[in-house]
Every structure is written in structure tokens, then in C-alpha cells.
Amino acid sequence: MIVVHLEYRLVPEYFLPAAVDDSLTLYRSLLRDDISSSRLIIMGDSVGGSLTLLTVQAILAHNLPKPCATIILSPFTDLSFSGESFTRNRLTDVVTHIELMT
């Protein structure tokens, strides 16, 4: 088994789609190195989970071979901060407290 850890460009120095571009560049590089997509699993946790979702979306948009699987843990998906859970918990949940996230 081979594990590759991606050091992608981070906010606030860089904005989307920089991290997705980094991830897609790595994926394409692995394919060029004759690593079959059937042997590739993309995994991410938290914002990395969100990056995993965006990477798979980009893979599909570019008609690249799909990875064998994805593992997505606790993805951050509501970038609008307007979902029902954000609204309901905005003053009590330290994880989603908007003032702590900006």
C-alpha cells in the first residue's frame, strides 16, 4: 500500500480553486505514473473532506477515471453559513460559531 499526503495551498493566502487544482494535479500525476485509478482512494477529514468532494467533482468534470473509492469524514459543506443547523446553533455551538470561524 502506498499513502500520499497532499500539501495543498491553504486559505487565506490562496483561494478556491487552488486546493482543488493541487489535488487534481496530484491525481493526474498518479495516473500518468501508470497507477490505475482502481487502486486509488481519496480521503479527507473536515475541510479535507470537502476538498475530497470537490476533487471528485473535478475528476468527473474532466472525464478522468474515477478513483476506487472515497472516504469523506465530517466534510464542511455549507459555505454560506445559512443552513438550518448553523442558524439554530449559531450562538451555542463553538464549532459553528461564525465569529470564531472568520
From TrEMBL:
GO terms for molecular function: hydrolase activity. Residues 2-88 form the Alpha/beta hydrolase fold-3 domain. InterPro entries: AB_hydrolase_3, AB_hydrolase_fold, GDXG_lipolytic_enzyme. Pfam families: Abhydrolase_3. Keywords: Hydrolase. PANTHER family: AB HYDROLASE SUPERFAMILY PROTEIN C4A8.06C, ALPHA_BETA HYDROLASE FOLD-3 DOMAIN-CONTAINING PROTEIN-RELATED. This is Alpha/beta hydrolase fold-3 domain-containing protein. The lineage of its organism: Eukaryota, Metazoa, Spiralia, Gnathifera, Rotifera.
